[in-house]
Structure formats: C-alpha cells, structure tokens
Amino acid sequence: MVDKFMPKKLILAGLGATMLTVPASAEVSSESVYIFNTLLFLIGGFLVMWMAAGFAMLEAGLVRSKNVAEICLKNVTLYAVACIMFLLVGYKLMYDGVDGGYIGSFTTWFIDDGAALAEEGASFDAGYASASDFFFQMVFVATAASIVSGTVAERIKLFPFMLFTVVLTAIIYPIQGAWQWGGGWLSEAGFVDFAGSTIVHSCGGWAALMGAIVLGPRIGKYDANGRARPMPGSSLPLATLGTFILWLGWFGFNGASQLALGSAADAAAVSNIFVNTNMAAAGGVVAAMIVTKLVYKKVDLSMVLNGALAGLVSITAGPDTPGPVFSVLIGAVGGVLVVFAVPAIDKLKIDDVVGAISVHLVCGIWGTMAVPLTNADASFGVQALGVVSIGAFVLVTSAIVWFALKFTIGIRLSKEEEEVGSDLAELGLEAYPEFGRGSQKLSV
Fold it and tell me: What percent of the chain has pLDDT over 70?
C-alpha cells in the first residue's frame, strides 16, 4: 500500500538547483484551495504595500534635507492616488476582456465575492477571493509611480507630478500591463515577465527617463564642462532602512506572483522564489561593492544600496526557474550594470536623483532578457519584442503627458523655489527645522 503523503522529489531548474522533498499531491477541498490562494494574495499585497514605505525612506535619504518633507508627502500621496485610479479605471482596463488584444474595458471594479460569502451553497471555483486579487494587483501600480518620484525629485512641482501619476496609474501602466498579464497580444506571443521586471520596473523607468529629460537637471548639477557635481543626500542611514524595507517587500512582490498556494507544488514554488529573490539581491550587493572598490578605490554605500535593488529588479522577470546559484549571478550582473549605468546617464546630462533609471530601467531590461537562460519556454526574440514594444509605448505616452503639463500649468519649480527647497516652497515647512533653514524665507 502506498502512503499518499510519501515524499517525492521536486527538481528545481537552473544552475545550483537543489533536490527538495515535498509531499505528494493530496486531495484538497476547493474551499481550502480558495483560502490558501486568497491568503497568499493578501500577504503578498501588504508586503508590496510596505514597499511604498521603502521607497519613501530611500528617496528621503537620497534627496537633500531641504526636500525631504516634500518627497515624503509625494510618496504617501502617490500611493493613495494610484489606489483610487486603479479602482476607478486601471484594474478593468488591465484585466477585463483583453482576450489577446491590447486593452481592457473602461469600467470600475467592484467586489464580486457573493457566492463565497453566502452561508449555504457557496462555490469556490474561482480559486480565490476577487477582492484579494484586486488588492494584490493594485499595490503593484504604486511601485511604478514611486520610481518616477525619485528620479524627478528636488525640482518638480507637486501637483503636476500628481497629475502625471493619475495618468500613469489609470491609463499607461494598465494598458501595457494588459498586453501580458491581462492575456493580451504579448502573452499570446509567449512573452514572459513573471513579476514585472518590464511591466512594472521598466515601465516606471521609461516614464522616469522621459520626465527627467523634459524637466531638465537640477540647478548646479552639471558644471560648464558637463561634469556631474555630487549632491549628497540627507541621510544614508535612512536610505539604508528604505533598502531593507524594499528587500523585505520584494518577497511579496515576487513570491505571491506565483498566484497560488493551494498545493504542495505551489508551496515549494513560492519557497524557491523567496530563496532566488533573496540570493539575487545578495549578488547585487556584493558585486556593486567589489566593482566600486575596484573602479573608485572606495566603496560607495549609495551604490551598494542600489546594487541590492538592481539584483532584485533583475530577478523579478523570472524568479521561478533559476536555482539559487544562478540567481546570485543574475543579481550580480544587475549590480555591475547599475555601477556603470549611473555615471553613463550622468554623462548624458540626465539628472536622476536616486539612480532609479539605472536600477529599474536598465536592470529591468537585463532581467527580462535573462529569462530564457533558465526558462525553456521563453525566447530572446519575444523577450526583446516585449521590452521594445512596452518601452516605445511608455516613452511616447509619457512624453505626451509630460509636455502637455509643461506647456499648460508648468512642471518645474522656479529658480528661487528650487534653491530654497521644495519643503518651504511647496509645503511651507521643513523636515528638519532644528538644523537650520527656518530663518530662510521664500518671497512670492
């Protein structure tokens, strides 16, 4: 007689894969599957929501002290705006009736869990509560907006930025997301982006790149010869805290993108994704530390922090197929790329305050193109098609919005406002009043 709980072997693909033992498949009720899948969405969702705090702390640490309060306000507000716009427009536009095409429907999402909540005759065929799925997909969109926030910091007006966030989260992000995650044409073509190296991170990176170009650099960022001047941030400890928060939140970002926890195989897959996500970040940290020491003779903490994020972005497109050792290598390549991408972007006089373009766009492209290295179902040609098509769409639509805002209400602080700082110019307060800018007055 064969025990149905007898362990069986599960081989995880990729270099460095290990042999894990998981229970053999057992009969599980549809209600149990429903509960576990819903729980995964909810836990993953609140971990991704916590990444909003990570972005806020990272950016607050990397901007100058005269802009810290405003960057905190932008991050909490953009999260709220993203949630509302995804509810009203974005979710249905991304997921409703795409059917191999390009766009969903312009309708508002509503909770449809009546059958599961009924006292009798409940049906759990959907596999998860619809509200849990909405919640999990909703928190992703704020990540794309946060990427833009850090890039254009210290010289953009608050309300034009928020108007751009409205369009990004309601229209731009959902449409390109529908092409893959909504079952659109890229999904039909075989494009693979497991948790969003391109759909989330490169999308935010392309929008940030166009914003930085239209907005222009901060006053004094480049000298007469075009060389970048250092503008140290307010708090490296705060930036470090933000990086750790993002690292933690990424387990929900990637792990819950398995979208199922109702079987032993799913539980093993989620565990594998957690390990790969962590190891890629570790690879990014070590690689960035070694390269900065070799190139600059000293280790740059801010670059090492970006190395961690570079590793995380790099593994996000395919955290389900590599083994841990290959995940370290994927993350390490991201860490190396970010070290060279930051000064390369500076040479183009594109002022990216926190290095978000290098982290999220450059490493998002690398991570997407790396998927076929461990996933036999992916091809380099289709991956490139996804990168180029999404990049072109986001660049064009972002440019339209940025230029429309620039030539109507204006997007940039005045010279006087920028010099005194956006805290006083936009909020009339300071994040660190005891340290000495309180005596400065902004004439209006």
Answer: 89
- The sign of the CA dihedral 232, 233, 238, 242 is negative
Picking from 184, 167, 81, the residue whose alpha carbon sits closest to that of residue 396 is 167
Could you report how far apart the first and last alpha carbons of the chain are, in Å?
Answer: 85
Within a domain: 135: no
CATH of the domain at 232: 1.10.3430.10
- What confidence score (pLDDT) does residue 444 get? 43
> For tokens 């990086």, what's the residue?
243
Q: H or E stretch including 156?
A: none
Give the total number of structural domains in the chain.
1
Residue 354 lies in a domain: yes
State which residues form the domain around 331.
31-103+141-433
pLDDT band at 434 (very low <50, low <70, confident <90, very high): confident
298 within some domain: yes
> 239: closest CA among 296, 307, 156?
307
**Both tokens assigned to 105:** 């429907």
Specify burial of residue 259 (Cβ count, 10 A radius: 0-12, 13-18, 19+).
middle
- The helix/strand/coil state of 356 is helix
Residue 16 lies in a domain: no
- Residue 16 in contact with residue 210, Cβ under 8 Å? no
**Are the CB atoms for 68 and 234 separated by under 8 Å?**
yes
Average pLDDT, the chain: 91
What confidence category does residue 405 fall into, taking pLDDT thresholds of 50, 70 and 90? very high
- Count the neighbouring beta carbons within 10 Å of the beta carbon of residue 283: 29
Look at 22-36, 89-103, 408-422 and tell me which has the smallest mean pLDDT: 22-36
Burial letters 117-139, b for 16+ CB under 10 A, else e: eeeeeeebebebbbbbbbbbbbb
Per-residue pLDDT tens digits for 353-374: 999 999 999 999 999 999 999 9
Q: What is the largest CA-CA distance in the chain?
A: 86
Residue 138, pLDDT above cutoff 50:
yes
270: Cβ–Cβ under 8 A, 6 or more apart, which residues?
40, 255, 256, 258, 261
Integer Cα distance of 288 and 268 in angstroms: 30
